[in-house]
Amino acid sequence: MNTLPAADALVRRDLSHLWHPCTQMHDHQTVPMVPIARGDGAWLVGTDGRRYLDGISSWWTNLFGHANPRIAAALADQARTLEHVIFAGFTHEPAVALAEELVRVTPPGLDRVFYADNGSAAIEVALKMSFHYWLNQGHGEKTRFIALTGSYHGETLGALSVSDVALYRKTYAPLLLTPILAPSPDAYEAEPGESGAAVAQRRLGELRTLLEQHAHEVCAVIVEPLVQCAGGMRMYHPDYLAGLRALCDEFAVHFIADEIAVGFGRTGTLFACEQAGVSPDFMCLSKGLTGGFLPLSAVLTTTQVYDAFYAEYSAGKAFLHSHSYTGNPLACRVALETLAIFRDEPVLERNRVLSAHLAQRLDALRGHPHVADVRQTGMIAAVELVADKPRRTPFPPGDRRGLRVYLHGLTQGALLRPLGDVIYFMPPYVITTQEIDLLVDTAVDGIERAVAG
């Protein structure tokens, strides 16, 4: 296997003190740490001058390229004016203008905006706000949440409580709430001859059964619309969202849409919920919200929810949740500039061309003897590697076949960081068709090497 050059001084300093996320640090005895000096559009440039095509948008955050000059200029301008101010009892133009713009572009009925500073924090806000709404309404018995099998909503204890990826959840299970799990509408789990839409209807029937049994104790159903990202890029039909909205209305529970990863154009529409024509009770946003520049998240909700907290202080109904950097002016300003790019440029139209090209290039992998599935929703695509295709038997986890693809990608100047043995593509929107070709060619070659022997 090809390797990168020996670690430079920056890497040695890093490994002397830092503890990196989602990483077994022992791996870096053999897996290279890659020191980056700067970004350039869809590319990352190493301290040694090597260039890496960012096929995963740096954990799904970057939309319009690294060091985007338009967003960078807005950030610099704001930094000369106001960097931060307490957001309790104070306000400022970037936060107000961003809230107005988010209300304008999100599905109808989401008229109130609560800021936090990362995706997990947004989920915490939505969970607490949903529970507190029902408590304020005299329904303190509602204390549970329904989540989908295979779901992932973040790493803080509340967010992890409504997640179902054992890799992240198992260790901390004694500390967590116990969710009610509804079977995912994942189209990969279709019976022979069953369509994605039919899977959605079958799973809605199972969700109905759960609600009939548990609605009295349930605050909300939380889902990642259309794509369960960290759970392996599992994808499902929009009909499930439409049916979910109807069931939540029927059984008087909230619908929380976690659009942290899928929002801002990733699925082909600005928000995934649009493809079902539904409005959730809570929409959680982060990642692409700032174009990948700064941490920021937002929870949008309805006037009905807001009104349940609006009372004299003595009533004890206030939502007393806070973050020190709530409504940070720098982050709000770059988020405004990110949304302005969507407004000023034909982003979604360009993405349709790029996603069609990606689909065309990946189509050849459908016949590969170790590829069980090639799936795509907008600018998100995934290739599922298996040991036995007819039986869909996975490779033993200890084989770490996906890691082999990652390592090969680095030697070829491509950042492809699989989820287990799922090789996925979620590039910045500034990528070109030629750069997509580079990503796919590198992935195909990496897959051949990974499944050999």
Automatic annotation (TrEMBL):
Q: What class of enzyme is it?
A: transferase
Q: Which UniProt keywords apply?
A: Aminotransferase, Biotin biosynthesis, Cytoplasm, Pyridoxal phosphate, S-adenosyl-L-methionine, Transferase
Q: Which reaction does it catalyse?
A: (8S)-8-amino-7-oxononanoate + S-adenosyl-L-methionine = S-adenosyl-4-methylsulfanyl-2-oxobutanoate + (7R,8S)-7,8-diammoniononanoate
Which sites bind substrate? 59, 152, 287, 322, 417
GO biological process terms, alphabetically, are: biotin biosynthetic process
The EC number(s) given in the record are 2.6.1.62
Q: What pathway is this protein a component of?
A: Cofactor biosynthesis; biotin biosynthesis; 7,8-diaminononanoate from 8-amino-7-oxononanoate (SAM route): step 1/1
Cite the GO molecular-function annotations of the record.
Answer: adenosylmethionine-8-amino-7-oxononanoate transaminase activity; pyridoxal phosphate binding
One of the Pfam families matching this protein, by short name? Aminotran_3
Q: What is its main location?
A: cytoplasm
Q: Which residues are modified to N6-(pyridoxal phosphate)lysine? A: 287
Tree of life domain:
Bacteria
Q: State where pyridoxal 5'-phosphate binds.
A: 119-120, 258, 323-324
Which GO cellular component does the record give, naming just one? cytoplasm
Record site: Participates in the substrate recognition with KAPA and in a stacking interaction with the adenine ring of SAM: 22
SUPFAM superfamilies the UniProt entry points to:
PLP-dependent transferases
Q: Which cofactor does it need?
A: pyridoxal 5'-phosphate
Q: Where in the cell is it found?
A: Cytoplasm
- Provide the function of this protein: Catalyzes the transfer of the alpha-amino group from S-adenosyl-L-methionine (SAM) to 7-keto-8-aminopelargonic acid (KAPA) to form 7,8-diaminopelargonic acid (DAPA). It is the only aminotransferase known to utilize SAM as an amino donor.
Q: What family does this belong to?
A: Belongs to the class-III pyridoxal-phosphate-dependent aminotransferase family. BioA subfamily.
Q: How does it assemble?
A: Homodimer.
**Descriptive protein name:** Adenosylmethionine-8-amino-7-oxononanoate aminotransferase
Native organism: Dyella jiangningensis
Task: Tell me the gene name.
Answer: bioA
